[in-house]
Structures
1.
Amino acid sequence: MAARRDELARGLESVRARIVSACADCGRDPGEVSLVVVTKYFPVGDLSDLAALGVRDIGENKDQEASAKLDELGRVDPAARERLRVHFIGQLQTNKAASVAAYADVVHSVDRERLVRALSRGAQRAGREMDVLLQVALSEGEGRGGAAPEALEALADQVAQAPGLRLRGLMAVAPLGGDPDDAFARLARISAGLRATHPEADLLSAGMSGDLEAAIRHGATHLRVGSAILGSRPSTR
Ligand SMILES: *Cc1c(COP(=O)(O)O)cnc(C)c1O
């Protein structure tokens, strides 16, 4: 599907241009900002095309979909599967943790102690090490997961001691309808607070298709971008 590959190439190019320009506006080096292409709801062929276009990091938010797609990619395009680092970015049920630990390189959505224990067991069983970001809830009652800011310190201690897991930083989604600059400024303060006790937790996953410029202004190291690259999804959230 050469036409689809061209479409993805244009999407990538326009998002990369937005990243370069947002970095220039705030004096950051675009090399510090990783782009995670969120492929949820999109087919295996897109993963293949993205890998061929030089993408290294992809994000998925449902275990059932992700594990099936990655298995299939391993069969139809093993070189692409080999190339891709998988970021799990969705709310995660404890009983899916072992499955996720078998394929994810980074989990962005760790928000409770039971999940830390389950991921640690899963990673050990799979003989793997996973990078962990703690998801922070920037607003209450949106049902999008995330730990309260006050709970992060204890959770960070737990991850830092869990075999098979490496504490790497924080993730957040800007509250719907709010000003993303306010949300990400708050996230940056929370991140600075956590780094005082856990200096290794220096990654910040923030920013999506609609608010990546604000996230870059406030120190994001990882952007999770879907629709601006792949087009609109059949249904979301
Ligand atoms: C789907 C999703 C994204 C990507 O959203 P877009 O608006 O399509 O860029 C980012 N983060 C999370 C947690 C998601 O579930």
2.
Amino acid sequence: MKTFDINSFTRENIRRLQPYSSARDEFQGEASVYLDANENPFNSAYNRYPDPHQKKLKDVIANLKGIQPEQLFLGNGSDEAIDLLIRAFCNPGKDNIVIPQPTYGMYAVSADINDVETRTCLLTKDFDIDIDVIQKTWNENSRLLFLCSPNNPSGNSLSENKIRAVLEKFNGLVVLDEAYIDFTSSKSYSSWLNEFKNLAILQTLSKAWGLAGIRLGMCIANRDLISILDKIKPPYNINTMTQEVAFEALQHVPQQKIWVKQIIEERNFLKDRLEKLALTKHVYPSDANFLLVEVNDAKKIYNDLVKKGIIVRDRSNVILCDDCIRITVGTKEENKILIEALEKL
Ligand SMILES: *Cc1c(COP(=O)(O)O)cnc(C)c1O
């Protein structure tokens, strides 16, 4: 097992930080009269600050994912976790993060906001990790390395042995984004957390759970890493309504499974029909709820679809995605409308 000491890896100012102590930190438990947090006593539905530790919600999620609640950080979307990981471990103007491309754009944006350099390299032509290339990309100031599996916008899963190789070789934290994990048959890499102390996993309720609107993302990692994220997050980052809606939704796992099954069926239908179109050059294999499609003229097709009130994502400016559009799998009805529109172009 390789050694990785998260405390010495943490930025000096964060390690020394004395976190804010909220009213709900200083008193936990039940009381009949709360006069500690300057809340308004009258509007009784949402007048109280939310639980800063999201205990009830974390218990449900941890149970569902087969992890301990202490291995779980909840954020205002995964985007908050991405930002906090960069802020906790990268010194602005000095350290860098490694991002194999093409992938989710927020990693680089978050790094830019934090004045942290991004070092990019390419995935292979079939969007898998290239170990030689990636090793040449990092240097002694590389702190985080972002991998996304299944990857956005390509849709494929990265190969397991290459993820393992990166975890073994990289002298920093590997952040593995599993936003689309529920659409695959493979299981989460959270089972590797014991073996690899330098692994942090991102998941979200925005995709398979159909809850992009409530903004709930998570980081799953070893407890020492999670406690660092907890230390620097805004105290009440997950609002009461989000905690309630998520708690309720997570009671209905069978419903989520039905949606996922339907989406996968529809993905197969879409792939099949898209491959029959004259304008299609290639439909990439997908383990996610979208398809990356190479067409004969992405910009034109995108604009023609917009005119018909159908919005897809033009990815033709993205590296390795020349003339590609990304199509999210919709309902049976929506997918039919899309295919009929494309047939008429
Ligand atoms: C959609 C998506 C997310 C989700 O982000 P949230 O902030 O949780 O909504 C994260 N990572 C990737 C790669 C995504 O495509």
3.
Amino acid sequence: MARFLILLSTAVHLVSATLVGELSKELIKEGLVSIDENGIPKTSCMVLLSNGTSTPQECPVIPGFGPQGVGCFALWNADRLIEQGCFSRQEISLRNQCKKKTCHSRRKQKDVSFCCCHGPLCNGKFTQ
Ligand SMILES: *[C@@H]1O[C@H](CO)[C@@H](O)[C@H](O)[C@H]1NC(C)=O
């Protein structure tokens, strides 16, 4: 038990050292984001490869100015999937753009649709 508590406090310390923001803390609590061995939040997303197939990949938070988070995105038009992958941005930007669990576009820009979401492989399905 004591050993477990020591491990736990070490993990908490590492997380605070990387400036995990409010959104990431919330997503970790909800199981939509996990933490790697260095205390960096990460998720998994479907990523479109150059040969046109999609595959699951690990997506870490990429450091930047202010609290950063990570989600998944998809970009498509009527004909095809254009891009799909990791979406690491400032938390404030993720709050505005990403839904939890489902990748559902908020608005259509001309004929291209974009969605962003939180949750493992949540961008495997995307809807207008
Ligand atoms: C696409 O590329 C990936 C990675 O190189 C490979 O594993 C996969 O088999 C390829 N799929 C097709 C349909 O070529």
4.
Amino acid sequence: MADALERAYAIAREWFDQLDEMPAGATVTAEIMRARLTAPLPETGMNADTVIDELATKVNGGLNNAAGGRFFGWVTGGTLPSAVAADWLVSSWDQNGATFATSPALAMIEEVTGQWIKELLDLPRQASFAFTTGCQMAHTTSLAAARHAVLKAEGWNVEDDGLFGAPILRIVTSENRHASIDRALRYLGIGRNAIYEVATDDLGRIQPAGFKAALTELEGPKIAVLNAADLNVASFDDFATLIPLANEAGTWVHIDGAFGLFARASRAKHHLVEGLDLADSWSVDAHKWLNVPFDCGVAIIRDGTAHRAAMAQPASYIEPELDGRDQMDWTMEWSRRGRAIPVYAALRELGRAGVESMIDRCCTHCFNIVTRIGALPCARALSIPELNQGLIRFERSNASDAENDQFTDDVTYAINATGGAFFTPATWRGMRAMRVSVVNWRTTDKDVDRAVCSAAKILSAKLAT
Ligand SMILES: *Cc1c(COP(=O)(O)O)cnc(C)c1O
């Protein structure tokens, strides 16, 4: 055992030591990766430490430097030291997080950590929760609870009778939502066609009048899904206006807060998420802005009875929870990883103050990247970030919109090819843009300078041609 672990430790040390020098994105082609990794199923085995060495050699260049401070693609999040180390222990201890009996310590850590998350995000302390693989499954868990509750109110037991013959459910949500909502609805048998899309304003926020009209005009049981925040410009729906409208209509409100829910942990950003605590369920990702390794999301649900009714499953070999939490009563999985342990570690390492400072730092860095790159020739910030996400478009004068779409993509990929920073492209209101996402505790002013420099270098090279 020791040799393999020592090799892994040495490789991880080297990885972390080189984050600042490494290119921000992967550098090898799919062809090279495939050639290196493809092999027939091995007939015979080899030493564990050789396996580890060989693995690290083969993936070299095929890893994005997402743990480093210059990776601004998608919304990925970094990894805090205690969270990485705790994650190693999760694998070493190999506890099954299904029930209290399968790991008493793990059950207790989930109990405590779930409570901490609710406190950190200032959500109802009596709410139930589940540690899921990510926000996608936090949505699925939350919407399963919602499905139970709204159909129960119609006299329908969805756990016993399924959806065949059930009252038709409608989902009222934003045209500007994350596609994981659609997938959760598919998994739950509700289907995409149940979605009623409400129009949004120029920042992608639901228009209250359209929302109100949908709630009044659509018949039957309804669930509303709101954004905290949108992936592109981190805009928040107007919770203080929308949620009371939904409550009046007896509609369950679910919030997609994959990263934006962390605004609740910052006094400077709290105004963006005022009234969000009036909802019925919330999804958030610890593997994004809390900087724990993949994979960890959290579902938080006001009505614990609905949550448990949607998830719990008695089985002959399970003693009901006596001393502590049986996680499988709250999650979609049966056997599962102790994924709350790195969250426990991260919250212990940072404390409330450390989380707040990380959130605020990321927001400042995002503002600086977007406004500084946006001020370069041929560049334009499409919105001024209030949180951690922003968009920049690159445009040549006298070029058509389609040409500038192409130019924007070209510039984005050229910046990535410098290795100085990594961004991902997006489409916003029909236009291509380069998206900036800052969600890593490691990002420094120096990283921001390097990102801006990479963009400046590419733009002056493009302008010279
Ligand atoms: C990332 C993200 C999701 C999906 O989360 P996973 O953890 O990848 O399942 C959903 N909604 C928003 C707004 C996101 O940013």
